[in-house]
Amino acid sequence: MTNIGLIYNQISWEEKAIVEEAKKQGIKIKPYDSRKMHLKIQNGKEFSEIDLFLQRSVSYTKGLYSSAVLESQGFRIINSTECQEICGNKLKTSVTLNKFGISTPKTCVAFSYESALEALEELGYPAILKPLIGSWGRLVAILKDEQSAKAILESREILGSFLHKVYYLQEFINSGKDIRAFVIGESVVAAMYRYLIPGDWRSNATIGAKAEICEITPEMEDLALKSVSATKGEIVGVDFFEKEGQLLVNEVNHAPGFRHIVSATEVNIPEKIVEYLQTCE
User: Fold this and answer.
1) Cα–Cα distance for residue pair 135/60, rounded to 1 Å
2) Which of 41, 97, 140, 218, by CA, is between 20 and 30 Å from 106?
3) Looking at the chain, which runs of residues are DSSP E strands?
4) What angle do CA 151, 161, 38 make, to 5 degrees?
5) Which conformational region is residue 261 in: left (phi greater than 0), alpha (psi within -120 to 50 degrees), or beta?
6) Sign of torsion, CA 230 64 256 59?
7) Of 93, 84, 90, 50, whose CA–CA distance to 66 is shortest?
8) Side-chain half-sphere CA neighbours of 44 within 13 A
9) Orientation of helix 218-230 relative to helix 90-99, angle to 10°
10) What angle do helix axes 146-159 and 113-123 make, rounded to 10 degrees?
11) Cα(113)–Cα(120) distance, rounded to whole angstroms?
């Protein structure tokens, strides 16, 4: 029997569902709040009763660094530190996907206000400005034209942290929706459409986008599994845009929410996660 440690920094529907499913299957699962953990670097095996950890921290830094310490002590972490480091940084994700020949939206990176405006001239308007690190559509901005770009870039120059001054710029794909595919191990277990929020240009289900079931096509399955392999993931969400009949991989999420995809597809993702964890000793 696998004893699972579940690391989190806020309890959401997903963490509760995983804990409940583990209890149903008779699996021992112990939650750990990363905000209250202290980890000894030199003295390993502080969690001798745990066989593996499921990392569910929505905080990139808390998840990444707690995983790094635990991996150094010999524990298996799902998803691994390497996966978190890639997927938690949008630039690293794009570079990795491109290296493996996976099609993505047109993307540029710039390191100053001036070079960002030059990049936008090549990329074209409207365009999207994203923070390197972040989720749920926070601090993502649409740059409709040069005037709005100058205003938003200037605010990041003055008010942003050093990471906000690395300008990750992406073409705006106006398809009205995107696709989230949920991957566990080597299986794409569910997929959903997420439609633009009325009065908004974003399609994040966590902030109110309508979700409905999406057929898992061979192209989607192939691209999702290639993306998971490239980013060293095991339990991830892969986000797609459709452009001119082609699927483009937008992001790979290493701590994906799944409440909305469960509701849209009726696939019991918590059950599948716990079943998968039992195979990972």
Assistant:
1) 9
2) 218
3) 4-8, 29-33, 52-55, 76-78, 107-110, 127-130, 141-143, 167-171, 177-184, 187-195, 211-213, 235-243, 246-253
4) 150
5) alpha
6) negative
7) 84
8) 9
9) 110
10) 150
11) 11
How many other CB atoms are found less than 10 A from the CB of residue 147? 10
User: DSSP secondary structure string, 118-174?
Assistant: HHHHHH-SSEEEE-SS--TTTT-EEE-SHHHHHHHHHHHHHHS-TGGGSEEEEE---
Please give the biggest Cα pair distance in the chain.
60
Give the model confidence (pLDDT) of 174-208 as tens digits: 888 899 999 999 999 999 999 876 655 555 555 55
The pair of structure tokens assigned to 198 is: 């009325």
The 8-class DSSP code of residue 197 comes to P
Instruction: Provide the whole-model pTM.
Output: 0.91
Q: At what angle do helices 269-277 and 13-24 cross, to 10 degrees?
A: 60
**Sign of the CA dihedral 10, 16, 22, 26?**
positive
**pLDDT digits over 227-244, tens only?**
999 999 999 999 999 999
Is 104:238 a contact under the CB 8 Å cutoff?
no
R_g of the chain computed on alpha carbons: 19
| Tens digits of residue pLDDT in 6-64 | 999 999 999 999 999 999 999 999 999 999 999 988 866 678 889 999 999 999 999 99
In whole angstroms, what is the distance from residue 127 CA to residue 110 CA? 14
